[in-house]
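Bit of a strange request maybe. I'm writing a small parser for structure token strings and I need a real example to test against, not something I typed by hand. Could someone generate the tokens for this chain?
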Amino acid sequence: MSDISSEAPSFITRFRESDLWYNFKRSPGAMIAAFLTFVIVFGAIFANFVAPHNPFDLSTVDLFDGLLPPAWAEDGKATYLLGTDDQGRDVFSTILYGSRISLIVGFASVGLAAVLGITVGLIAGYSGGMVDSFLMRVADVQLSFPAILIALLIDGVARGIMPRDVHDELAVYVLVVAIGLSFWVQYARTVRSSVMVERNKEYVQAGQVIGLPDWIILIRHILPNVMGPVLVIATIQLALAIITEATLSFLGVGVPPTSPSLGTLIRIGNDYLFSGEWWITIFPGVALVVLVLSVNILGDWLRDALNPKLR
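Reply from user aminoacidic:
Good idea to test on real output. This should exercise your parser:
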């Protein structure tokens, strides 16, 4: 008797045989956007090793090297590829370290918004009735205010509550909470709509018949079936969160100058833009645009790839 055994394909094998990977290979725009996003994220994560200088190490910063133009300019130095800012910090290195802060705030705030929005959407869509009406009215009220105003309000309240000497230390956490509480509504409304469709299907009714608790039905059975639209929203909102953080930092209510993000770097360079030191603000601005544009392109591609009507 022959022993017939077959191993289950690995996750990588299944992914390479999936429609998602097939669509990705056929989309040059998505491939370029993914490459640019990978380069920026890689440089931000490994900034300690990639950056030629540490802009936060005062022993390596020389004020006499301040406001140097890029290396290819007449007065530029080869050690400062994109020039220096007013404090003598290497612009290229500050972009790498600033991208790290922007990405941390972006991912953390999107994660917070997703957890809050998915929870509200699951409860509203599955419960229905007065609970659904109350939660959706709260969401409608928040939608009437721009996200940037809500973030400014939360940041202002936090500044009023916390002592001044600890605000700079907790500025990143305040930004994450402010942006996260501004973006949860889109998740809640999308998940609610999907749950209202899924709750009437046979597998949910079967779970109710055998006596499964509602929270198990929601988390184990309904949630995996509504994650497709959530991933698309998360990808698109990552770019919005980075833009919102940059806007708040540019207005001076975000990350402090001691640990600048891309928005803070643009604000610092804006003071020297009309005096001829254009590189201080232009290069961080270009990095921000490339990052946001790449993430948006990936979000658009993911939305189309997960849409069964476009297959």
